[in-house]
Amino acid sequence: MASRTTITARQRRLGTELRRMREHAGLTIQEAADRLGTNRSHVTNMELARFGVSEERVRTLAANYVCPDKAYVDALVAMATERKRGWWEEYRGTLGAAGLDLAELEYFATSLRVVELMHIPGLLQTEDYARSVLSTAVPGWSPTELRRRLSHRMKRRDILDLDDPPPCTFIIHETALRVRFGDQRVIRAQLDSLLESSDRPNVSVRVVPIGAGGFHVAGISVTYATGPVPQLDTVQLDVAQDAAFLDGESQLLNYRAVMDRTEELALSEKESRDFIRETVQQM
């Protein structure tokens, strides 16, 4: 079997879950290989996502590992058998892997919760606002690369228009409403667009006013993507022009609590819309 030339975050996650399932069963790689009738390197390559895995193989591994969670196994099968080429693949080789992995994560999420401190969330950005945000990168990008990144960001927004779009909660700090990316026309258009987005049935916009004080994720931007089962949830953090993806059990438990607490600090949806309108009027 030929090894993959590129490995996506979703493929890596499947391999990680196969490893976790084996470890939960208390089996070594050699013991897993013996039960499967193969060698150690084959099991290792599956767990490192170097090889694809068939539905039959996933179910055989689950049986070998005595995994009783049918919903979890079915979700792993869906990950293993997904063959559709995502739109983000057209950017592979021209944009970094983190941006492509984020688009993939958003596309397959069953729901999203996003906390943004300094920017309007990418999924809700207008083109002019996004161009201004992307233009602040250090070091700067060439005009061609800037156009590619802007195009990619605009395409990400399409998940909000899917036939069955994921429910999305965007928790936005007041600072993000007031920081000037672009001139006043750009900012006003962005806030007007934000209000329009908040009317979507699948979109909840919540504002955390400065007066609410500090909170745990102050200083970073967080996306919590819900998977088909809780074990397959993922946290994405923005870190200096890149992204970190977290999926450990304790990490997920921690960030669920953090997101819940942050949402408690935020204004209600109606109060948030009123707050945004007041911000526009003050410009």
TrEMBL record:
Its domain of life? Answer: Bacteria
Cross-referenced SUPFAM superfamilies, in alphabetical order? lambda repressor-like DNA-binding domains (SSF47413)
A Pfam match is: DUF5753
Q: Which InterPro entries match?
A: Cro/C1-type_HTH, DUF5753, Lambda_DNA-bd_dom_sf
| GO molecular function, a single term | DNA binding
Instruction: Give every HTH cro/C1-type domain span.
Output: 18-73
TM segment ranges: none
Instruction: Return the Gene3D superfamilies for the record.
Output: lambda repressor-like DNA-binding domains
Full protein name: Helix-turn-helix domain protein
High-level lineage: Bacteria, Bacillati, Actinomycetota, Actinomycetes, Kitasatosporales
